[in-house]
Amino acid sequence: MSWTASMTTNSRCTKSLQSGFTLIEVMVAMLVFSVVMSTMPSVFVAHLKYNQRAEIKTASLHAAQRVLDGYRVANPTTLPASGSIAEPDIVIGNYTFSPTTTFCAEAAYCITNSNRHIRVEIAYAGESTYTVETVFTKLR
């Protein structure tokens, strides 16, 4: 074997031994990966909580809409002129809501007998989650 042929063979061997990652590089990459992955559970839990709050808020809106729809068919003169009523619980999905209806909380809207100011407050687990107000009037 000539001197040139042996150099070519040795340089190929040296090159193949030097390719790839060192142990330090792999350990640094694993450290970075583990730091990033350790934050993932807290991000996931925060996202689940946000999603549940949004779901409760949307379901609360639907519960309030159900209560108001029940009053839409009534003649305003037959509705109470003041006070509050604890409505029956409303179940939407996996959530049970406790609605409370208040009549004429704003007296300025109840000047005539044919108008009723109605406030519906929706509570979930003892905490108010949605409140809506409207004025019903008798159409001629």
Structure overview:
It is a single chain. The chain is α+β, with helices and mostly antiparallel strands. It has one domain (21-137): Pantoate--beta-alanine Ligase, Chain: A,domain 2, CATH 3.30.1300.30. It is 47% helix and 26% strand. It has helices spanning 3-18, 23-72; strands spanning 83-86, 90-92, 95-103, 115-124, 127-137. Strands 1, 2, 3, 4 and 5 form a 5-stranded antiparallel β-sheet that branches. The longest helix has 50 residues, at 23-72.
CATH architecture: 2-Layer Sandwich
Q: Termini separation (Å)?
A: 113 Å
Q: Kindly give the count of domains.
A: 1
Computed structural class: alpha+beta
Uncertain spans, ≥5 residues at pLDDT below 50?
none
CATH superfamily: GSPII I/J protein-like
The rounded Rg comes to: 35 Å
Major sheet description: 5 strands, antiparallel
Number of contiguous helices? 2
CATH class: Alpha Beta
Whole-number mean pLDDT: 88
CATH fold name, please? Pantoate--beta-alanine Ligase, Chain: A,domain 2
Query: What is the share of helical residues?
Result: 40-55%
- Global geometry: rod-shaped
String of helices and strands: HHEEEEE
Number of strands: 5
In what range is the share of β-strand residues?
25-35%
